[in-house]
Amino acid sequence: MNAGFDRTTYAALTGIRAGLVEIPLVLLGAWAVSVSGAILPYAMGFAAGGMLFVISDEIVPETHSNGHERVATLGLMLGVVVMLYLDVSLA
Questions:
Q1: CA atoms of 8 and 15, how far apart (whole Å)
Q2: Which of 1, 39, 72, 91 has its Cβ near the most Cβ atoms within 10 Å?
Q3: What average pLDDT does the chain have?
Q4: Tell me, what DSSP letter sits at residue 65?
């Protein structure tokens, strides 16, 4: 079960092995971000659009059931206004 090592040694080797994988992948990720810097805003916009689709497809129909349409719509509108205000004021 522990490949012949005691529990402490096996835990330490497993942690080191997991950490060693992160170093080259961090470098690869940093390189990928620096190379694709020009399309990064578009990619983030695409991801945000995907998240909005999931929210509108999954969450909104649930909130608009059982006679809560007006409260759910006002909450969504208030949330969008707060999000846009924070985006503009903190950017």
A1: 11
A2: 72
A3: 86
A4: S
Which phi-psi region, left, alpha or beta, contains residue 3 (left: φ > 0; alpha: ψ -120 to 50)? left
Q: Are the C-beta atoms of residues 60 and 72 closer than 8 Å to each other? A: yes
pLDDT digits (tens, 9 = 90+) for 47-72: 988 888 888 778 778 777 788 788 88
Q: How far apart are CA 29 and CA 34, in angstroms?
A: 9
Contact 33, 40 (CB under 8 A): yes
Between these two residues, 59 and 88, which has the higher pLDDT value? 88
Q: What is the DSSP letter of 2?
A: -
**Sign of the CA dihedral running 3, 12, 26, 52:** positive
Q: Residue 5 in contact with residue 13, Cβ under 8 Å?
A: yes
List C-alpha distances in Å: 64 to 51, 68, 70, 72, 83: 19, 5, 8, 6, 21
How far, in Å, CA of 63 to CA of 24, rounded? 44
